Amino acid sequence: MSTSWLLNPVRRTMLISRLRPALLACVLLAAGCTAALNTDSRAASRTVMPTDATTVVPGTTGAELALQTSRSLFSHAPAVVLVGEQDEASMAQAGSAAVKLGVPVLLTAAKDVAAAALREELDRLAPRTLIPVGEAAARWAQDHPAEGRAVKPFVEEGLPRLAAVAALDKLLVLTLGRPEAAAATATAKASGAQVLVLAHPDPRADDEAIKALAARPGTHVMALGSAFGSADRLRNRIDTAETGTLLPGGRQVLFPHRRLIALYGHPGDSGLGSLGEQGVDAAVARARKVAAQYGSLTDDQVVPAFEIITTVASSDPGPDGDYSNESTVEHLKPWVDAARAAGIYVLLDLQPGRTDFLTQAKRYTELLKQPHVGLALDPEWRLAPHQQHMVQIGSVGANEINKTAAWLAELTRADRLPQKILMLHQFRTDMITGRSGIDTDVDELSVVIHADGFGVASEKMATWDAVRAGAPANIWWGWKNFYDEDKPTFTPKQTFAVEPSPVFVSYQ
Known about the structure:
alpha/beta, TIM Barrel
């Protein structure tokens, strides 16, 4: 047949008109027809903005996370990048291609269930082209052909970006820097969302995450993976992070990676511990000096602290009959304020006598609303009716501790404060009854059991071992050094050599 008709402009226009739909539908990975990609809605990814302010995409494996992230962020994609679930060597290349194209990346696996889920997601996205990266993905695409869907070999040069109908630039996606999250992270970036890679699923534990969230208060947040917990828990953490308020030493979560070294005592009373042996300014300087002795012994952040005996056990019942002398807020505030200015953490220690811990804690709500102030409960001085100090050793039940913890957690959550310490002093097992029932899974609190044994090294270690036996889960450990009663006082190196190495050390 003669080709001279091509020279006829009318016939040439008719031919191009007939070919245009095919040209517009194609997705080329090498240079060629990229100009047509953005002129047809079928050649553009369509993204989905989550309706909820906080969303957690479920999943623990790479395949699950990739699938669920695609479902959450894309309603259509003209192409999909495939890579084998175990093909770590090809993962970075696949992720880069997906981000450049603006399309999801999904993981192939040999399991029938996974293959069925992948096929279902491909049917939903309705891509015209599959782009396998690596041998495993290429084999899967060959073994699972689909009518009307082309398989294009991966060509790194000349990849066009398929413009999304609505880039998700108003969405912040939190993800973990773990191999199983790589594909899901690439899909999130491909959607146009801002992506923040964290080392820990709690954004309060990451200064960069706190900074990013504080700069975008009220933004929609999506977290990739079940490790982030429930959406409600994540929302509370985000609310705190958005304040930008940091603990002394950084972050909004206390442990790990922080050690607190404290002076213990009562302001103005040298007989109750090292804290009261000097005025507030000298106490600040001394606390810093004591903490500095530990700096070379750990890679953790070492932070000075005050543990202030806020209510002091008394041999006299007093006007209220509770055998406890309660300090006023006005008396303590200069110490709390000076500590905040100096980057010193504060614990308010309660010795309640015949009243209960919660009643006394509520007296100091104003101080506990400050971000650098936590609470210590000393059961030795919690008397039952008709008991007296120095005649009997007091005790407290798990129920009273839990009520106090719940109140402190709600105060912390309501004021969007960083995590607080709830410390429990103990040197005998019967000082806390029903200890296994203590609720230590409270997101706003970090529970520390503080071993208060004194004497020679063998006596201190015996107390340590007894207190640690049968402890609840999610507990951190504290240790007390006595300047006068210990024989001799442990050195900083000896103190940190105790196992497990304590996160809180106080000096009395």
